[in-house]
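User: I'm putting together a teaching handout on how sequence relates to shape, and I'd like one worked example. Could you take TIGR03013 family PEP-CTERM/XrtA system glycosyltransferase from Roseateles hydrophilus, show the sequence you're using, and then write out its predicted structure as tokens right after it?

Assistant: Happy to. First the sequence, then the structure tokens directly below it.
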Amino acid sequence: MIRIFNHYLHRQTLLQVFFDLGLIVFAVIAVVLSQGESAQTVLPFAASHGLSLAGCMFVINSATGFYQHVHNRSVTESCARALFGLLFGLPLAYLIFSLVPSTTSHRDLLTLVAMAAVAAVMVHRVYAAHSGTQARLRSRILIFGVGPAARAVGNTLRASDPHAQIVGYYAGPNEEQREVPPSEIVNDGANLTEAALRLNVDEIVVALSERRGGSMPLRQLLDCKLAGVRVVDIATHFEKTLAQINIKHVNAGWLVFGDGFSQGMVRAAIKRVCDLVFALLILAVSWPLMLVTAVAIRLESRGPVLYRQERVGLNGVNFKVIKFRSMRTDAEKDGKPRWASKNDDRVTRVGRFIRKVRIDELPQLFNVLMGEMSMVGPRPERQYFVDDLVSKIPYFAVRHSVKPGVTGWAQVRYEYGSTIEDSVEKLQYDLYYVKNHSLFLDLLIMLETVAVVLTGKGAR
């Protein structure tokens, strides 16, 4: 894992991105050079056309999910995503290179090569997703502990990280409860440092269930670190592996003394400018769709097209969120707030569709323009639910230290939920965002939001 602007990315992901960008730019430069163009022509051409196409392909591959480290995707699904990417990538390549001045020699050849490079990128993405190349880049991980916490770490790695290879578990000296298979415990009389070096370990995850009474061999862990082995605690493990802060394995000291949770006037000002730019751009593109949606809602049922509902915003201040009405006007006729659930019978036919493709959220762009919301942030909840969740879930109020968002890390990482358990899961992603938020992470979330909209993931 590599940390970029406080967000963890797999080395494999970065290699994939650089390969795709390099392939397209190299193909463009190679064609220009083969036609006898001078270096003076090559550099500006590659910058203005090759890099433009490469950037578009980065957005397309991000939106189709090819840069996510998923190891259980079928070949059929990968091919479908590649075809969807080609549906956008090939016309973009044609349009970008059709803008080449007519004086440039062999414009048709350049356009053809650019389209071929796009096709090659998509073919390689499918190949890379299902070839054995990932296995050679695996990190060898030793889990220090054999109790419930160690078992949770092992299950997490096997389920979510295709680049991780668990070499075994090392039992702590005072651990009585063992919940991992005895065959995977590597204690053989050697101390922790000797075991780590013998097994050629890249990383040790400290997941001890009992840390008192000399259970933590700090000197041995330090020796491992000095030998080039990464040593992380269980809270950091979940942060970098699942991109969440697991509240079962975190304490206030870790939150207070660790990195992150940085706020500032400069960051807030830049984020505000970006919010205004993106909100205006999306409104300019989506207003015809919003108009059609308003007409459809009006034709299907009586009542207002838009509805306003009080939500909790920055620093606990309430505001009125604006959305397209997707439920009957008597959805809460008993006056008691209720979470929307999957296949909710209060949702209209038009409402079911606009919820599935997230059109109902578009009016919140006006909340962004008014400064009540951001484009990216934790989703705002109603005061009734906030009061209940704050009393039941630790650190829930931390999410109100940033503006709520039209989309967020929890929305692209976790499906729609309507229970306390779902709220805990979403909070763990929200805490990760509050701790590590940056413009880079905001961009990634917006790209993944496109994928969520296209696939209907987590629709409710």
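A couple of points you could highlight for students: The mean pLDDT is 82. The radius of gyration is 25 Å.
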